[in-house]
Structures are given as structure tokens and as C-alpha cells.
């Protein structure tokens, strides 16, 4: 394990742990109201969405199942390759189910637009998207996203599940990474 202190590799905290929790609680209330009387399956996208899923679902007032897909498009760099690979598929048959995709970030949008098309092809009752972060200036494709936690500037961020080269996911806040780390 790297024993350098994580804070030394950061430029600035953009969103604090407290801000994240407050926003996730608001979103959970909206989502619960939206699906009133319906069963919804939460689909997380590994690995980045682990923290969002864990905290978001605990703000829901009632029970909801979760499932996971693992895809990768970023590898070890800071730019999306645009080539999405399924590393792990859902365990659940989503035919006729209401699906809510839970994501950490929409950057270029390439990953989610691919996932959404893939899930749509399985004849679910509905598919909606919730993302903690979105970078409007980085969008390469438009994505219909019903719930967004925070719109952020077009900078590479880490923490709260988001990695650079698999590191920094355990940072509790969302922060910008110092260029010395990746240049
Ligand atoms: O909108 P995009 O430009 O496609 O980028 C967003 C995707 O990139 C990251 O995943 P990554 O491929 O790094 O996998 P990870 O979640 O395991 O870190 C992130 O978690 C999103 O899934
Ligand atoms: O800004 C980012 N940080 C970490 N992972 C990412 N995947 C897409 N954008 C980002
Ligand atoms: Mg990543």
C-alpha cells in the first residue's frame, strides 16, 4: 500500500462528505416519490458507484434490491477510451422491471449511453439514471439523466469511489488531483 498521505496529492476539495450526504438524502426522497407503489431495481456500475450506492440506498425509506454491472472504459488513464467492455453482467433478468442506474459520474457520457442502450434492449419496464456527478462541458453524447447530484467543471476528480489508476477511491470527499500525480 502507498503510504503517502492522500491529502498531499490533492489540489482542492470540491464537494465535502457532508454535502454529498445532504444531496443524496434529497435525491433519495425524490426517487422514492417517483417510484411510489412500484418495485425498482437499483443497478450500480462497478467500481466507481460503490460509495454512491451504499449511501444513496440507505437514505431510501423502504426496501429496494440492488444488482451490479462491471464495465470499464477508462483503464488507467484520465480519458475515456469510448470502448466499453462488460466485465460482469447483472445477475437479474430485468424484463418488465423498473431499473434505476446508479452512477458516480457522467463525464463524456460514453459509458452510460452504452450501458443504457444495452439495458434498454432487455425490455425493462423503464430505465432511469441517477448520477452523483456530471461534467456538462465534457459531454460527447446527450444522456437523459433524471437525477444529478452536482454539475462540476471539466476537471479530473477523485474520491468517494472515483479513482485515478485505482487509487483515491477511499477519499471521503470529491477533490481535484494535483497534476504531479499524473504527469
Ligand atoms: O462518461 P464517461 O466519460 O464514459 O465516464 C464515466 C465512467 O468512467 C468511470 O468508470 P471507469 O471506466 O473508470 O471504471 P471504474 O468505475 O471501475 O473506475 C466512471 O465510474 C463512469 O462509469
Ligand atoms: O473525473 C473523473 N475522475 C475519475 N474517474 C472518472 N471517470 C470519468 N471521469 C472521471
Ligand atoms: Mg475509473
Layout: helices, strands, pairs:
Blueprint: E1 10-15, H1 17-34, E2 40-46, H2 50-58, E3 66-72, E4 85-88, E5 98-106, H3 110-120, E6 126-134, E7 147-151, E8 157-158, E9 174-177, H4 179-182
Parallel strand pairs: 2-3, 2-5, 5-6, 6-7
Antiparallel strand pairs: 1-9, 3-4, 8-9
Bound molecules: 1-O-pyrophosphono-5-O-phosphono-alpha-D-ribofuranose, hypoxanthine (HPA) and magnesium ion.
Pathway: Purine metabolism; IMP biosynthesis via salvage pathway; IMP from hypoxanthine: step 1/1; Purine metabolism; GMP biosynthesis via salvage pathway; GMP from guanine: step 1/1
Domain Phosphoribosyltransferase: 19-164
Keywords: Cytoplasm, Glycosyltransferase, Magnesium, Metal-binding, Nucleotide-binding, Purine salvage, Transferase
Amino acid at each position: 500500500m502507498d503510504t503517502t498521505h492522500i491529502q498531499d496529492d490533492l489540489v482542492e476539495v470540491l464537494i465535502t462528505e457532508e454535502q454529498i450526504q445532504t444531496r443524496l438524502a434529497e435525491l433519495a426522497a425524490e426517487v422514492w416519490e417517483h417510484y411510489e407503489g412500484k418495485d425498482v431495481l437499483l443497478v450500480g456500475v462497478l467500481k466507481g458507484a460503490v460509495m454512491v450506492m451504499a449511501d444513496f440506498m440507505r437514505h431510501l425509506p423502504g426496501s429496494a434490491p440492488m444488482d451490479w454491472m462491471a464495465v470499464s472504459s477508462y483503464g488507467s488513464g484520465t480519458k475515456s477510451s469510448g470502448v466499453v467492455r462488460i466485465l460482469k453482467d447483472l445477475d437479474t433478468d430485468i424484463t418488465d422491471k423498473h431499473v434505476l442506474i446508479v452512477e458516480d459520474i457522467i463525464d463524456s457520457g460514453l459509458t452510460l449511453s452504452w450501458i443504457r442502450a444495452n439495458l434498454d434492449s432487455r425490455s425493462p419496464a423503464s430505465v432511469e439514471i441517477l448520477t452523483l456527478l456530471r461534467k456538462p462541458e465534457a459531454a460527447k453524447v446527450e444522456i437523459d439523466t433524471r437525477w444529478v447530484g452536482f454539475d462540476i467543471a471539466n476537471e479530473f476528480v477523485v474520491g468517494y469511489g472515483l479513482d485515478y489508476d485505482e487509487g483515491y477511491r477511499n477519499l471521503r470527499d470529491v477533490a481535484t488531483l494535483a497534476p504531479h500525480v499524473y504527469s
